[in-house]
């Protein structure tokens, strides 16, 4: 009896910590952007490797690599703006949302280049990674929008 | 529940609170931080910059001019 009460209390405490940890993770726009940046590099490295292995033609690879570079440029601008975001300041929040919107636009162009990849395995692999970037960017937008 | 069990139960709660407090303080601090906890931004900056640099290097290595 006593052991079961004790186990329940520990479970409640653990659940509370887990819920708070999840909430904390969800409130971090920086982490979401870092995930997007990391996956963008992963897409780039994947395509560089695939071009080297001959599974993606050089000109197709160039389009995707250039597009990931553009995502990187847009990402750098977004990071600079998001660093200046202050709570309850609609001006900085709107600027940050616009900056994230530019990355999403570049990501859309990257997605269009990926459609042209003939090797289905490579295409699906890259599309899967792009979906992760999109999810992270959307999460970052929601988190920043919540500051208004 | 006898007295000994009550004391043991209270002690176990205090033990849980004692162990969980540093973690909870850190988590609540992260939630309440005014800038929304943007500690990972430098990492994002580094990886975005790497994407820009890698694209330039790959183009140069393959003889493509900007």
- Characterize the main sheet of chain A: none
Quickly name the level 1 CATH class of chain A.
Mainly Alpha
* CATH-defined architecture of chain A: Up-down Bundle
Tally the helices of chain A: 5
> Residue-averaged pLDDT of chain A, rounded?
83
Overall pLDDT confidence of chain B: 78
Number of strands of chain B: 0
Number of domains of chain B: 2
Q: Could you give the count of β-strands of chain A?
A: 0
What class would the helix/strand composition of chain A place it in? mainly alpha
Radius of gyration of chain A: 20 Å
Core attributes:
heterodimer, A: 148 residues, mainly alpha, Four Helix Bundle (Hemerythrin (Met), subunit A), B: 66 residues
Question: Can you describe what's shown?
Answer:
In chain A, helix 2 packs antiparallel against helix 3. Chain A is 86% helix and 0% strand. Chain A has one domain: Up-down Bundle (Four Helix Bundle (Hemerythrin (Met), subunit A)). Chain A contains 5 helices and no strands. Chain A is mainly α. Chain B has 66 residues and is mainly alpha-helical. Chain B folds into 2 domains: 32 residues; 28 residues. Helix content of chain B is 77%, strand content 0%. Chain B contains 2 helices and no strands. Chain B is rod-shaped. Chain B starts with a helix and ends in a 5-residue tail after the last helix. At the A-B interface, helix 1, helix 2 and helix 3 of A face helix 1 and helix 2 of B.
